[in-house]
Amino acid sequence: MTKLSLEELTNINLLLSIDRIGPGKIKKLLLKFGSLENIFSKSETELIKTDGINKLLAQRIKNTLKNKDKIKTETKKELDRINNLNIKLTSLWDSDYPELLKNIYDPPLLLYYKGNLSELDKFSIAIVGTRKPTEYGKLQTQKITSDLVSQSITIVSGLALGIDSIAHSTALISNGRTIAVIGSGLNKIYPDENKKLFEEISEKGVVFSEYKLDTLPDAGNFPQRNRIISGLSLGSIVIESGIPGGALLTAQFALDQNREVFAIPGNLGIRQSEGTNALIQRSAAKLIKNAEDVLVELELKLKPVIGKNIPKPKPDLNLFEEKILNVLENEQVQIDKIASLTNLETSDCLVHLLSLEFKGIVKQLPGKVFAAI
User: Fold this and answer.
1) Considering only CA atoms, which of 307, 309, 285, 303 is closest in space to residue 126?
2) Could you give all domains of the chain from N- to C-terminal order, each with its CATH number?
3) What pTM does this model have?
């Protein structure tokens, strides 16, 4: 449970109750005035010297003090209820607040969660996509999720139908860890079909929400929710998304947060592939074919959890490259001998050896001698 006092929580909720004031503006106010209490003690003239706070917002901050007793009572009731429901509350100032999320521009000041936090969550990857995936999308989600989980990676998603649900379920079936971020209060689970999945994730992972318990799943909550999905993750994988699509918004948040974005290419002419193909086309996402591509790209960041077990990507080789590589498997070989052993012309061997060098598989030594790396 958060270390913040009832008074501090009340002040946060007072500020959050003001229209057009969110975590980003509150952080700026805190940076300027040092504490929540100081913010409310300042005059309108002093408040408007804060970046993003105009005269109207300054007036709202001063006027909201008349609601303090009411907000304090509501905050106390909320704390009692979350205790009874086995839900926890953490804040940006608490040691258990997710480390990756702290580093985004506008992290939620308060996070409600059900389940248990883990050190492994520092090594999380988000998997998001359409609510109506194709069979191809379903298979890709299952394969990539299970392969990432086998490397002790935590899977983050949004508990929506489709790709999100498949990612969560596959992680659980694979005895892995998964995190869900929802756009409603933790006692207002949406969609109804995922209530059982919500409970399973709560038992074996964690479900987060920045919203109070009774918050309904209003459409406007989900775009905000997506910044948390990407913010909790070292990178986000988009598997099938139309244009527009919530998964594309998650990808944009990830880019804004300086996190990696990956996308699985899809068939042309398929609506569910339009978003992923567009991301790849405009270089907003790295094209991946499997989990190995992600692990290699994030090798340095993931090394503490998977150590030396990072799988090497399997290069695409043609028949002639494979024949040459077999010759070089256990020894260094001169070009004429390579040509003889492979029954290829020397000139053809040199072309294929150059290709193998570009792929980082073969190196050339003095005297036209070649060796496998």
Assistant:
1) 285
2) 6-84 (1.10.150.20), 114-306 (3.40.50.450), 319-372 (1.10.10.10)
3) 0.82
What does residue 180 show for φ and ψ, rounded to 5 degrees? -110, 140
Looking at the chain, list the stretches that DSSP marks H as alpha helix, in order from N- to C-terminal side.
6-16, 23-33, 36-41, 44-47, 55-63, 68-84, 99-102, 135-149, 163-173, 195-204, 221-231, 246-256, 271-281, 291-297, 299-306, 319-327, 335-342, 346-358
CA distance 325 to 319: 10
Kindly report the number of other CB atoms within 10 A of residue 75's CB atom.
20
Sequence-distant (6+) residues with CB within 8 A of 279 are 238, 248, 251, 261, 263, 285
Between helix 6-16 and helix 23-33 the angle, nearest 10°, is 120
Cβ(230)–Cβ(254) under 8 Å?
yes
**Do 230 and 126 contact (CB within 8 A), yes or no?**
yes
Report the candidate in 152, 150, 128 with the shortest Cα–Cα distance to residue 140.
128
How far is it, in rounded angstroms, from Cα 92 to Cα 305? 25
Cβ atoms 52, 16 nearer than 8 A: no
Q: How far apart, in whole angstroms, are the C-alpha atoms of residue 130 and residue 265?
A: 14
Q: Please check whether residue 151 is in contact with residue 177, taking contact to mean a CB–CB distance below 8 angstroms.
A: no
Residue in this structure with the two tokens 């804004």, named with its chain if needed: 256
Structure tokens at 137: 């999308």
pLDDT tens series, the chain, 373 aa: 799 999 999 999 999 999 999 999 999 999 999 999 999 999 999 999 999 999 999 999 999 999 999 999 999 999 999 999 999 999 999 999 999 999 998 999 999 999 999 999 999 999 999 999 999 999 999 999 999 999 999 999 999 999 999 999 999 999 999 999 999 999 999 999 999 999 999 999 999 999 999 999 999 999 999 999 999 999 999 999 999 889 999 999 999 999 999 999 998 889 999 999 999 999 999 999 999 999 999 987 887 777 555 555 567 788 899 899 989 987 899 999 999 999 999 999 999 998 888 887 898 998 899 998 8
